[in-house]
């Protein structure tokens, strides 16, 4: 895709998700069914997490999303990543999306580290050739030696984190979605991980960052939106929006 066409466009996005007990498929439901008893269907309630959100993010922009817990920040990020389906409205992501939320999610424990590099890249939409071009860098950065050709289930927790971080930061998309700035591994790995994250953020064509760290938001982002109860209540220059948010929070 041509770079000038890359970006994000969201129009009137509303998103509901269910809350409360769901008994379908539970042991309790199975026992009721086994003995022929009728079980009252649970009442499913929905929470509207996002309410009429509209925004555009162009190539070169670094958009920060701030707000209190429960304001809809992470929900919006996951809607951009395609994890949550909109209840109404449109989410258009023009470019290859890289969402970094739980970096270890999706590992195949019986597959080798090298095979997991391939699987993660294919899920992101990279070609086998593109994945092979990055494989050596990933293996070197993870620094797990010959374990790269052993099943992931044999790894220590530290080795799994290092490999997950290396895969997530070297198999890069056009649009980078970050829920807080990531760090990984033990103390000896932290400095290398922090430098890698800085490089990743700088090289992303489009960045969307959710964070509670106002200093990071102001240092990294070119524009900020403030979410409250699922709505955008302020948008603009990072220093201005952060000042409004902190004043409202009484800080």
From TrEMBL:
<dbReference type="InterPro" id="IPR017871">
    <property type="entry name" value="ABC_transporter-like_CS"/>
</dbReference>
<dbReference type="InterPro" id="IPR015860">
    <property type="entry name" value="ABC_transpr_TagH-like"/>
</dbReference>
<dbReference type="InterPro" id="IPR050683">
    <property type="entry name" value="Bact_Polysacc_Export_ATP-bd"/>
</dbReference>
<dbReference type="GO" id="GO:0005524">
    <property type="term" value="F:ATP binding"/>
</dbReference>
<dbReference type="GO" id="GO:0140359">
    <property type="term" value="F:ABC-type transporter activity"/>
</dbReference>
<dbReference type="InterPro" id="IPR003593">
    <property type="entry name" value="AAA+_ATPase"/>
</dbReference>
<comment type="similarity">
    <text>Belongs to the ABC transporter superfamily.</text>
</comment>
<keyword id="KW-0813">Transport</keyword>
<keyword id="KW-0547">Nucleotide-binding</keyword>
<protein>
    <recommendedName>
        <fullName>ABC transporter domain-containing protein</fullName>
    </recommendedName>
</protein>
<dbReference type="GO" id="GO:0016020">
    <property type="term" value="C:membrane"/>
</dbReference>
<dbReference type="Pfam" id="PF00005">
    <property type="entry name" value="ABC_tran"/>
</dbReference>
<dbReference type="InterPro" id="IPR027417">
    <property type="entry name" value="P-loop_NTPase"/>
</dbReference>
<feature type="domain" description="ABC transporter">
    <location>
        <begin position="29"/>
        <end position="249"/>
    </location>
</feature>
<dbReference type="GO" id="GO:0016887">
    <property type="term" value="F:ATP hydrolysis activity"/>
</dbReference>
<dbReference type="InterPro" id="IPR003439">
    <property type="entry name" value="ABC_transporter-like_ATP-bd"/>
</dbReference>
<keyword id="KW-0067">ATP-binding</keyword>
């Amino acid at each position: 895709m041509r770079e000038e066409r890359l970006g994000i466009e969201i129009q009137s996005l509303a998103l509901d998700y269910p809350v409360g007990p769901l008994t379908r498929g539970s042991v309790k439901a199975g026992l009721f069914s086994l003995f022929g008893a009728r079980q009252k269907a649970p009442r499913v309630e929905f929470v509207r997490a996002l309410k009429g959100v509209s925004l555009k993010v162009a190539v070169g922009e670094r958009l920060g999303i701030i707000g209190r817990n429960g304001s809809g920040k992470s929900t919006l990020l996951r809607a951009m990543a395609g994890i949550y389906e909109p209840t109404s409205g449109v989410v258009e992501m023009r470019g290859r999306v890289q969402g970094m939320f739980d970096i270890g999610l999706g590992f195949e424990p019986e597959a080798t580290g090298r095979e997991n590099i391939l699987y993660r890249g294919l899920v992101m939409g990279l070609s086998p050739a593109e994945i092979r071009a990055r494989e050596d860098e990933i293996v070197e950065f993870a620094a797990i030696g010959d374990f790269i050709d052993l099943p992931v289930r044999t790894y220590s927790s530290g080795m799994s984190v290092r490999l997950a971080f290396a895969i997530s930061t070297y198999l890069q998309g056009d649009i980078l979605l970050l829920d807080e700035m990531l760090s990984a591994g033990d103390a000896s790995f932290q400095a290398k991980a922090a430098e890698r994250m800085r490089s990743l953020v700088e090289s992303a064509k489009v960045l969307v960052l959710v964070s509670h760290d106002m200093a990071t938001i102001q240092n990294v982002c070119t524009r900020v939106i403030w979410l409250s109860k699922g709505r955008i209540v302020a948008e603009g220059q990072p220093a201005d929006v952060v000042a409004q948010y902190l004043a409202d929070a009484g800080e």
